[in-house]
Structures are given as structure tokens and as C-alpha cells.
Amino acid sequence: MKFTVFATISLLITSSVARRCANVEVPEELRQEAARFRALSASSLRASITGADALRKSGGYNDPTTRTQKIKLYIHNVYINRTAEGGYIPNSDMEKQAKALNEHYAQTGIYFDLRRVTHTKNATWATCERDTPIEQDMKRTIRKGDYGDMNLYLRPLQGWLGWCTFPKDVVRGSDDYWKDGCDVLQSTVPGGTFFPYNEGKTSTHEIGHWLGLLHTFQGGCDEGDLIDDTPAEAIYTDGCPIGKDTCVGPAYPGVDPIHNFMDYSDDACLNQFTPGQTVRIYQTWDRYRAPWKSNSSYTGY
């Protein structure tokens, strides 16, 4: 009963505002790298900036003319008890989430290769806050793969829809190495109960941070997300207000990117990454995560 009351209060708090992502501050290291990436010529990168339809027509993920990347995916359901209220979701829901990720990231050439789903009953882990010894203990125990593999923890978070670690230089076995990954409210999976965020796009948004993307509104009108083709946006989007335009004037062409996965719009409103975001994903991947794939212990895809 105590958990039910607490969860209900938390649900009311969370759903009374727009999408709540805990990645509100960008590490200075990543900000500096993002500014450097912005200055690089996009033509020097073999990033896929075609649309999802063109990618399919060209032969899919194996087309050698298109930049693609497979990423091993491990999804962990950490729950209080074997009920929906306790945070439990079946394997089928985790598989639906993996499928949704690949649909959303198809336009970038990123493909998530689901390797394993796990269930862990542990009430302390299930509701722990970020950057705590409890979180560290959980991830040291159940995390799989290395720094180039995605670990997605679906659990009954309190007060947040999700958060994710930004990429950085880490040492194997360090706290930052083990903490790497994304934590997402389990009821945001496709068909989940947390309307209007129940199409699996919270995980898409959070993994965007893991791949080096910032919020579209991160630096306001003048700095933005440090990607040139993201329209300027002063504040996050709530709902799906067509025509929303918070940065006006000749210096800020276009309306707010309310359909961008890195905004806070309702799930039904989100459907795109920009070509510049695709370039940034591969810039960041090559800088921080690709080196881990050269380890002799790594067996490939």
C-alpha cells in the first residue's frame, strides 16, 4: 500500500509537466567537443543523412555506400514485485521497445542488436536515484558488454521519465564505466500506461544523449544544441503545438523543432532527427565509443 500511494503521487507530479529528462546539464568536456565537431566539415564524414525510405530502398543496413552502425543492446527490467504497479514488464514489452528504437533510428543508420533481456527483482535498485552508491551497485552487478554497448534499464523511476549518461573518456572498471547507460520509466514502452509518453520514444530520446545529442532547446536561441540545422528553440515543447516559434527574427529562420526526438513533445508528435544530428551521432561515436570495439576480446556483430 505504501508503494501504491507513493507511486501515485509520483505519477501525478511527473505527468503534470512536460517530459522530464534528468539530462539538464551538459558536461563541459562534451560541450567543448560538440563545438569542435560543429566546426568540422560534414563532408569529411561518411554519415548517413538519407531518409529512412531512401535507406530501405538502397539495400538497408548492409549498403556499403551508407554509414551505418550496429550497437549491441541489453535491456534490463528492474522491478519491485511482479506486478505492473511494481514495475514489472514482460519480455515482449522489452522486445517491442527494441523494435521501436530501430524504427526511430532507421533514418540515421543506427541499428540496435538486441542481445539479451533480463529481469531483476530488487526494490532498492528499482527505485534508486541517479548518481548514488545504490545505482552503482546495481549496474556493476547486471551491466553487460563494454563502453560501446547500450544497457537500457527499465524500472519504476520516481519523478523522472529517464536519464542517460553522455559519452566521455573513461577507464575500464571505473565508476563512470559501470554507470554508463540509460535509465527509463518502464511504463513508457510501446503500449505502456504512461500516456502521452507510451510509444517508446522516451528511450529514443535518452539514447540520443548516450550518442552525444543535446536537447534541441539546450542553449536557447543563440547556442541551441550546437548543430547547425536544428532550428533555434528557446524553451522545450509541451504537447504538440504546431507552429510554436520561440525564437523570432531574421537570425532564427523556421519554427521550433517540435517533431525532433530531442525535444520534450508528446510521443505522438516525435518522428525525426536532422541530418546534422546524424552527423553528430557518428562524430561522437567515433570519438568516444568506437575505440572500445577494437579490443581483441570483442567478437564483433
From TrEMBL:
Gene3D superfamilies (UniProt xref): Collagenase (Catalytic Domain) (3.40.390.10)
Signal peptide: 1-18
Keyword NAD recorded: no
Protein name stated in the entry: Peptidase M43 pregnancy-associated plasma-A domain-containing protein
Source organism (scientific name): Arthrobotrys oligospora (strain ATCC 24927 / CBS 115.81 / DSM 1491) (Nematode-trapping fungus)
Tree of life domain: Eukaryota
Any one Gene Ontology BP term: proteolysis
CDD domains tied to this protein: ZnMc_pappalysin_like
Sorted UniProt keywords: Disulfide bond, Hydrolase, Metal-binding, Metalloprotease, Protease, Signal, Zinc
Domain Peptidase M43 pregnancy-associated plasma-A: 199-283
Family annotation (Pfam families): Peptidase_M43
The family this protein is said to belong to: Belongs to the peptidase M43B family.
GO function terms (MF aspect): metal ion binding; metallopeptidase activity
